[in-house]
Amino acid sequence: xxxxxxVFFAIFLPLLAIAQRxxxxxxxxxxxxxxxxxxxxxxxxxxxxxxxxxxxxxAATSVGHLALFAGGRLHNGSYSDVVDIYNRTANAWSxxxxxxxxxxxxxxxxxxxxALFAGGLDDSFKPMTRVDxxxxxxxxxxxxxxxxxxxxxxxxxxxxxxxIVGGLSGDLQYLSKAIDYVSADLxxxxxxxxxxxxxxxxxIADAASGVGLFAAGYENDRPGDxxxxxxxxxxxxxxxxxxxxxxxxxxxxxxxxxxxxxxWGAAGAAANGVFAVGGGHLFGDASSQAQTxxxxxxxxxxxxxxxxSSSPLKLSTPRDYPLVQAVGxxxxxxxxxxxxxxxxILDTRSGAFVAGLGHRPALYTLRTDAxxxxxxxxxxxxxxxxxxxxxxxxxxxxxxxxxK
Length: 404
Known about the structure:
The chain has a single domain (about 15-400), classed as Neuraminidase. Helix content is about 5%, strand content about 45%. It has one helix and 35 strands. A hairpin with a 2-residue loop joins strand 27 (about 325) and strand 28. The longest helix is centred in the first third of the chain and has 20 residues, at about 15-35. The protein is globular, with a radius of gyration of 20 Å. The termini are far apart. It comes from Coemansia asiatica. This is Kelch repeat-containing protein. Keywords: Kelch repeat, Repeat, Signal.
């Protein structure tokens, strides 16, 4: 059954012109980067750098020619307010500060101009409402407030609007159904996710097509009870921007086809209307089955058909909580808790993984709980995380340059 609801931004500036402008820009960027990405992954360049402060559990996103790595956990366990910003045009790093230091922050972009750092947990593990907003055109910071405090919210960038979805609520329900829609003029409208159970899933967006997913992860089958019941989730919500002549664009969210192989710890990205969700783990009974089984499965969702593929792909190695980024026509899987430095690179044009990579490209530093962002759809940056079997936070940065 498909139930659809739409949230119309009556308090917003008219968005039709904005939507059309963003779609034109996105189409232009897609055409440019389609020819502006080195197709031979063996030839991708490599360089290194350092964050200003070693940390893990950062929030990362990109906007304009900038990659931003915000907040996170310091080596002593406290939470940071530092934002490290890499400018690809200037090939230089700078720093800024969030209004409040925190971890478990949701990160995403909006309208090709704004970077959003939403919610999070403070040092007492209390969920927060704060949203720090960076304007890449002016270099200025401002703040917004979520309607419901929560940690680890997910952000779906739909072009002329963004949806800040779910997260950790800190109450008996523990997982939140809240949505905050943010318009390109930085106004917020509140809604509720239409799902059977509160869910902490993964968010993937393809701003060029104006489609996003909130899917997989885990759900609380006993919301409001004293004791929570967390199970892997098959719930899928599809977000989209609807435009009609003479009307304001509307952000819609509808129940999508169930996620075909529910599991925890998966991650994904989208390119060319192809949404790829890979890795993760399953829980067993620890007697007849292993307590935790890490998987190599990759599930594909098409924005054109609105369905998940019946033929899953496989990673070269099982990965749990991998980093996944879109680079041109490619979707890159790396890292995670699998102890592998190698990349898996899916070519969305052929629907197959690039063969014969060997160990290039690959991570130089084995790390977990790191952050990743892709600048200009061609420069993949991996930063921070935990090294030496998870004992120490690192400041090291690795940049994989696929830009022509």
